[in-house]
Amino acid sequence: MAKYLVKGAYNPEGTRGLAKDGGTGRRKAVQAMTEALGGKLEAFYYAYGEDDVYLICDFPDQATALGVSLAVNASGAVRVSLVPLITAEEMDAACKKSVGYRAPGA
Fold it and tell me: Which of 7, 15, 21, 42 is the most core-located residue (most Cβ within 10 A)?
């Protein structure tokens, strides 16, 4: 499974929904959605600043993750972005790749 950082920002309608459902209510809804798709909700945190909520989720594949992003953003209540998370071992493998790249002007 692929791991993602999900960042979300509520608009006024979404904020009203959050106030009605409560923080734990929204977490339960997101967990149920994630598990129904074959994924796992690893962490769920609220914050203040540019983003209102941060999640760490495992999704079975990119299509599932993108489907979640499309569905949530289409609701209009929350703007989310997904950031693929890379393990240290995956970074090690990437560091060992031979890439024939020439920088501009080099």
Answer: 7
Q: Which of 87, 88, 80, 38 is closest to 59 using CA atoms?
A: 38
pLDDT value at residue 106: 87
**CA angle 60-62-68, nearest 5°?**
85
Query: Would you state the CATH architecture of domain 2-94?
Result: 2-Layer Sandwich (3.30)
Could you write out the DSSP letters of every residue in 69-106?
HHHHHHHSSEEEEEEE---HHHHHHHHT-------TT-
User: Which residue ranges make up each domain of the chain?
Assistant: 2-94
For the chain, list residues with pLDDT below 50. none
Regarding beta strands 40-46 and 53-59, do their DSSP bridges make them parallel or antiparallel, or are they unpaired?
antiparallel
**DSSP for residue 38:** T
Consecutive H or E run containing 58:
strand 53-59
